[in-house]
Amino acid sequence: MGDLSAFKEMMRAFTPSLRYFAYSIVGNEEEAEEIVADVFIKVWEQRQQVACPQNVRYYLFKAVRNTALNYLKSQGRREAHHAAWEIQVNRHHHRNPEDIMISKEHLDLIQAAIRSLPPRCRQVFVLVKEEGLSYEEVATLLDISKATVNVQMTLALKKMWLSLGTTLLYSYS
Fold first, then answer.
1. Does residue 80 sit within a domain?
2. On the CB side of 116, how many CA atoms lie within 13 Å of its CA?
3. Which member of 14, 149, 158, 172 has the lowest number of beta carbons within 10 Å of its beta carbon?
4. pTM over 0.90
């Protein structure tokens, strides 16, 4: 992680999703942005001492989670605020040809369905479907069991299926 241009690219690629994740924990956009910035500063400062992790995405999400929880603890809060979770749709670097085929109207409907999910359910769904984390990684990241991740995903898919119907839901998956 010692190359500045590679580090900048990593920041560009991960900042939006990390910021939304931090926001889902602390419930404040400015605090979330500061948490993500702090994580990237620490990663840069420790780049010589720490080997590049095998799964950078998981490493960054775990670092943001820990930093956000430490922030809440330092603020005297015991529980994270669960606020509306927004999905950044325009992530060209993650899109495949099937994603590009989905119309804006479909994406708007999908986003609305995701936003209507209960907070924990939404958080699990986004980490699995949008961020590509495994059930095991999500369980570790959120400090819940793999079975809970499975239950939350089942609930999310059921609610989205009821809201969107099978054709639209499978165009997203």
1. no
2. 14
3. 158
4. no
Tell me whether residue 99 is exposed, middle or buried, using C-beta atoms within 10 angstroms of its C-beta: 0 to 12, 13 to 18, 19 or more: middle
Q: Which CATH number covers residue 33?
A: 1.10.1740.10
Q: How far apart are CA 161 and CA 172, in angstroms?
A: 11
Angle (deg, nearest 10), helices 4-26 and 56-74: 50
DSSP 81: -
Q: How many domains does the chain have?
A: 2
Q: Is 58 among the domain residues?
A: yes
CA distance 163 to 173: 15
pLDDT tens profile 104-157: 666 777 778 888 889 889 889 888 888 888 899 899 988 899 999 989 988 988
| Domain encompassing residue 54 | 4-74
